[in-house]
TrEMBL record:
InterPro entries: Epimerase_deHydtase, NAD(P)-bd_dom_sf
Gene3D superfamilies noted in UniProt: NAD(P)-binding Rossmann-like Domain, UDP-galactose 4-epimerase, domain 1
Domain NAD-dependent epimerase/dehydratase per the UniProt entry, residue ranges: 4-263
NAD listed as a keyword: yes
Keyword Phosphoprotein: no
Name of this protein: NAD-dependent epimerase/dehydratase family protein
Native source organism of the sequence: Christiangramia sediminicola
Superkingdom of the source species: Bacteria
Keyword terms: NAD
Length: 335
């Protein structure tokens, strides 16, 4: 049985994707460097759900099998490792590669730009080279809604011009799209880019608004509300993201070059989002209203018509249901 490589497997989306893929009968190898951009305990706990204890997951360059989940293995490795990554590819004969490994975060890119170049540019170039050299049928990779910057036209369409990114993170994701297109054009393997729109849900990243607001309310801290709350986000529950990704992974004849928005296509005002969290937490929050942060965009809204047309994508979890599911998990994990 040929296997699927999922990079960023200890991350939020990567963990959920690996879990669903093995449930659906795929052989999956997860890869992650488990960096300390945020608490590594959360990453190790995600891997523990996949049967990989910390004692095994913490060792670099060692492929280990899950203790209790058939068809899942994990390796701790950097995608910018030009010595060991090619060995993994040559040994495993992957059929498809899903590249979710990246240095995430808009605001952090102002503080540590080199982390974004190393992972998102150098690392992605390594993935493309190895897909070319190992006859990978299909590369699916993570882009971001951040590439739209302060696009005035709504909803955001993949046909829109995205030549004015307002953060280095967004610039690296735009670069990934260009790099993937070039490799597909030159070397004739299929590439599919996914522009994710504000994904949230259980096991979510602690640097995202969903966690920051919930955790502050739970611990009676003031929450920082940027741009005085005048922001809108196309919040998308993780199950809808994974549902869409599975549709693409299962495609036996994908297009050579494709790019999709993947989101809920239903933007929510930031203050309404906070109110929904407060309702589920059973208490009001103290708010500290602040100016807009450098690199932040005012609104996001995904036009998902092309994903609907090509893959019958249809998000089904609204904000009320999604926030409720997240808060339930948060209380079980953190409290």
């Amino acid at each position: 049985m040929k296997s699927i490589l999922v990079t960023g497997a200890a991350g939020f989306i990567g963990y959920h994707l690996c879990s669903k893929l093995v449930d659906n009968g795929y052989k999956v190898i997860g890869l992650d460097n488990i960096n300390d951009y945020y608490d590594t305990n959360l990453k190790y706990d995600r891997l523990k759900q996949l049967g990989i204890p910390k004692s095994k997951a913490s060792q670099f360059n060692l492929l280990v099998e899950s203790d209790n989940i058939p068809r899942f293995s994990f390796i701790r490795l950097n995608i910018q490792d030009r010595e060991n990554l090619p060995i993994l590819f040559s040994q495993q004969k992957f059929e498809k590669v899903i590249n979710l490994a990246a240095q995430a975060g808009v605001r952090y890119s102002l503080q540590n730009p080199h982390a974004y170049i190393d992972s998102n540019i150098v690392g992605f170039a390594n993935i493309l080279e190895l897909c070319k050299n190992n006859d990978i049928e299909h590369l699916i990779y993570a882009s971001s809604s951040s590439v739209y910057g302060e696009n005035k036209k709504i909803p955001f369409s993949v046909e829109d011009n995205v030549d004015q990114p307002i953060s280095l993170y967004a610039a690296t994701k735009k670069s990934n799209e260009l790099m993937a297109y070039t490799y597909s054009h030159l070397f004739k393997f299929s590439v599919t880019g996914l522009r994710f729109f504000t994904v949230y849900g259980p096991w979510g990243r602690p640097d995202m608004a969903m966690h920051l607001f919930t955790d502050a309310i739970a611990n009676k801290r003031t929450i920082d509300v940027y741009n005085n709350g005048n922001q809108e986000r196309d919040f998308t529950y993780i199950d809808d993201i994974i549902y869409g990704m599975l549709k693409i992974i299962e495609d036996k004849n994908p297009k050579k070059e494709s790019l999709y928005n993947i989101g809920n296509s239903s933007p929510v005002n930031l203050m309404s989002f906070i109110e929904e969290i407060e309702k589920n937490m059973g208490t009001k929050s103290d708010k500290n209203f602040l100016p807009k942060q450098p690199g932040d965009v005012s609104r996001t809204w995904a036009d998902v018509e092309s994903l609907k047309n090509d893959y019958s994508y249809k998000p089904s979890i609204n904000l009320e249901k999604g926030v409720g599911k997240y808060i339930q998990w948060y209380k079980q994990y953190y409290l």
